[in-house]
Amino acid sequence: MKYILLFIVLFGWGTGRVFAQNIEYGAELDTTYMMIGDQQHLRFLMKSDQPLTVRFPLLKDTVVGGVEIIAGPERDSVREKDGKWLFRESYVITAFDSGVYVIPSYAITVENGDYNNVLRTEPLAFAVNTYKVDEQQGNYDIVAPYQTPLNFAEILPWLLWIAGGLLVAALAVWYIIRRKKNKPLFAAEKKVYVPPYVIAMKELERLKGEKLWQAGKVKEYYTRLTDTVRQYVADELQIPAMEQTSFETVQALERNTLVDARDVEQVSGMLQAADFVKFAKSTPLPEENMKNLEIAYDFLQHTNERLKSSREEEKDGGTEEGSEAVASEL
Fold first, then answer.
1. Which of 35, 116, 175, 234 to pair with 148, CA 20 to 30 A apart?
2. 8 A C-beta contact, residue 236 and residue 303
């Protein structure tokens, strides 16, 4: 070790900068002694009174056998407080075997107008020492691994996998239970039955509130008015009024025993007035518009009352027939 240190000291003198023509240059290391696997910087320096074109040596994978380049080159140039320009180029180096390594002399090319020269650095030496291994303990890490805390980004994938697994398990259990009870996998949505009479009355109320004919939309007013009555006739009386002409609808109503003759006459006049508006572009008086809306109200109410009475009679008749049948059997 004494000879190694003496060797390094002698070579260390060669790392000083040489002065020539107001130019200082050289190469340097962070340290002349390092442990195996450590890293340090190898720098090439050039200092001048004025800007220069400097070409430093270009190193690739290794500096010398056993000395590897980890990163670099990184180059910068600054003007120091004394007014001089400093040019630097640095590499990060390491060694994975113990011993003494000598970095050879490298050429630095300098150009500036009438000055053009190739300057060579002095060799540099550094020692790499290794760790003693206890044969009883065997090999072990030089530095223990750092235990860093887990962050949310690392935990998130595991949480997603767990949530997905729980969801699949829940779906499987739900499927098995539904199958055992002979129930459909997805229950159909129950539709609430709304009587045609209620639907038609709400539509007439909406039409009345919108005041279409007052705003000059007479055709739209009569179209919606007659469509409401026709849809009610189709749903409640099973007459295809939406596909029929006004004349065909009136004939079908005349044949229906649940519709009063006076209501048929009133509805016939309303449908005729609507046809004149839609196809002949006539403009009824405001009193006629209000009257036709009232005709629609009366038709719905009267027909609904007659339908209720008819259904109650059928129900009562069915009960009486059933009682008579039981009495005859006895």
1. 35
2. yes
Q: What is the rounded CA–CA span in Å between residue 275 and residue 290?
A: 16
Nearest partner of 198 among 225, 249, 236, judged by Cα: 236
15, amino acid identity: T
Under the banding of pLDDT at 50, 70 and 90, the label for residue 298 is very high
Going 171 to 176 to 177 to 181, the CA torsion angle's sign is positive
Residue 301: half-sphere exposure toward Cβ, Cα within 13 Å = 7
Chain position carrying tokens 């910068």:
76
Give the type of residue at 175. Answer: Y
Contact 28, 43 (CB under 8 A): yes
List phi, psi (to 5°) of 327. Answer: -65, -40
**Element containing residue 46 per DSSP (H, E):** strand 39-48
pTM: 0.43
The candidate with the shortest Cα–Cα distance to 50, out of 77, 14, 12, 17, is 77
Per-range mean pLDDT, top range of 136-140, 145-149, 277-281:
277-281
State yes or no: pLDDT of 273 exceeds 60. Answer: yes
